[in-house]
Amino acid sequence: MNGKDRGPGMLSRTNGEAGNHEVGKDEARNNEILRSDEILRKDDISNAETLHDSEEAELRRILARYTIEAPTTDDTAQFAAGLLRHWDAAEEPSPAAGIGKPFHMLQMIQAQLKLFQWPFWLASATVLVLGLLVETAAGSEAAVQPFIFTAPLLAALGVCFAFRSYGTPMFRLEMSLPVTPMLLIFGRLTIIVAYNSILGVCLSLFLVGGTGSGIAAYVFSWLVPLGATCLSALIVMLYAGLNAGIFMSVLVWSVQLWLNKHLGMFYIFSSETSGYWMESKVIGVLLILLLTGLLWLRIRWLKLSGRLAVSNGN
């Protein structure tokens, strides 16, 4: 039959056959669903283990097409980033819009305190007290002051402990949350530095025994190396991984310990009895400013990239 012989009746019959085919596919799909429902009703769901092998295999075959893969960490991060983009497009206030306000920053820091359990606080205090006792026994004329070396190393290792999830899917997920990387990283760094600084000042008052220029010089002696060591460990960790951050903190501490006064004005762990004390502290402060700038650039890159790219120690 050619095209001229096809009348309205033939076209109607053809369309009807196509519609019947679609209806047949829908009926087959519905029959499979009803069949799976019959299998489940045949035996109570609480006794599903009593299904026959053939029935269980048939049920698995039918339900396989409705099974989806569990979302990965990357999927979750992309989903969160998409939500934030839509949030900004709608000109709605972001959950982190008030991070510039001190109250909101304190709230975020308080929330991160839950990452640290009481054994961490107790162990940190115990180590600092031991350093104080050793320094009391060693005297103030020694080239290496035990407490000045104890506080910076303890704080640097505390920073590494605070970011122990680095390099894991958990840290990727943290970076995908509405809280900015700047607030997250500086919040944890503030917790470690503030806790060790408060303890250090209290113990310094006990060790020096008074107030004024003496206590100020002593606190400055260990506070500068504490800041430099913590920032060095954190920056190296954000670039090269957690183990590299731990190694850097121990390396800086070891070089200062073994070379001490031979470093001259670069002996930033020096006490006030050192001949280059003032010069070394100025260099230490400049180093802290430089490291802070590098840390800010690194965190800014993390923010612009959308999420932290952590893979095989990168």
Low-pLDDT ranges: 1-15, 307-314
Oligomeric composition of the shown chains: single chain
Mean pLDDT: 76
What is the radius of gyration computed over CA atoms, rounded to a whole number of angstroms? Answer: 33 Å
Order of helices and strands: HHHHHHHHHHH
Based on Cα principal axes, name the global outline: elongated
Helix tally equals 11
End-to-end span in angstroms? 71 Å
Major sheet size, sense and barrel closure? none
Transmembrane segments: 115-134, 146-163, 183-209, 215-239, 282-299
Protein name: DUF4401 domain-containing protein
Biased composition (Basic and acidic residues): 19-32
Keywords: Membrane, Transmembrane, Transmembrane helix
Name the descriptors:
single chain, 314 residues, mainly alpha, 2 domains, 71% helix, 0% strand, disordered N terminus, disordered C terminus
What do these coordinates show?
With 314 residues, the chain is mainly α. The protein is built from 11 helices and no strands. The chain folds into 2 domains: 3-64, no CATH class; 98-305, no CATH class. The longest helix has 35 residues, at 8-42. Keywords: Membrane, Transmembrane, Transmembrane helix.
Which secondary structure elements does this structure contain, and how are they paired or packed?
Blueprint (H helix, E strand, L loop, with lengths): L7 H35 L10 H12 L8 H17 L12 H11 L5 H21 L7 H17 L6 H7 L5 H29 L3 H28 L1 H18 L17 H29 L9
Helix pairs in contact: 1-2, 3-7, 4-8, 5-6, 5-8, 6-8, 6-9, 6-10, 8-9, 9-10, 9-11
